Automatic annotation (TrEMBL):
Highest classification ranks of the organism: Eukaryota, Fungi, Dikarya, Basidiomycota, Ustilaginomycotina
Keywords from the named record: Disulfide bond, Mitochondrion
Family that this chain belongs to: Belongs to the cytochrome c oxidase subunit 6B family.
Pfam family, one: COX6B
Ranges of Low complexity composition bias in the record: 1-16
The protein's name: Uncharacterized protein
GO cellular component, one term: mitochondrion
Positions of the UniProt region annotated as Disordered: 1-28, 49-90
Native source organism of the sequence: Pseudozyma flocculosa
Protein's cellular compartments: Mitochondrion
Bias-annotated ranges (Basic and acidic residues): 66-90
Length: 134
């Protein structure tokens, strides 16, 4: 039995009766990455750190000087519905391509990874140059 089988036989689907998951092809993965890069590029050009509608309720977000502004923005976003957040997204066209070409779990992962990378950039920028050890 293959790990990512597309067969619908009762033997492959197990006792749960759920259809087997098929892994995306190389071209499907490439399409996802291309649309993700276009969307994130648009967000960067528009100075948007956290993609609108991204759930960051686990407490991870901006730090340092940007933390207060980011927390206020997150509070405003939390008060908005998901649909309102989507309408406010300056990159809605790129986002639609991203969501059509990527699995939901991939989108959640990529969005949270983007936030983490932006946090790291802010930390390094705020840290400034360190004196060399002697």
């Amino acid at each position: 039995m293959a790990l990512f089988s597309s067969s619908n036989s009762s033997q492959d689907s197990g006792s749960s009766g759920a259809p087997a998951t098929v892994a995306p092809t190389r071209s499907e993965r490439q399409a996802c990455w291309t649309h993700r890069d276009a969307y994130f590029g648009c967000l960067t050009r528009n100075k948007v750190t956290i993609p609108p509608g991204t759930d960051m309720s686990d407490g991870r977000g901006a730090i340092g000087k940007a933390a207060k502004e980011e927390q206020e923005r997150l509070q405003r976003e939390k008060n908005q519905s998901v649909e309102e957040a989507r309408k406010a997204d300056p990159c809605i066209q790129e986002r639609e391509g991203y969501e059509q070409n990527c699995a939901r779990s991939w989108i959640d992962y990529f969005n949270k990874r983007r936030v983490l990378e932006e946090r790291q950039k802010m930390m390094y920028a705020q840290g400034g140059p360190q004196p060399a050890a002697k």
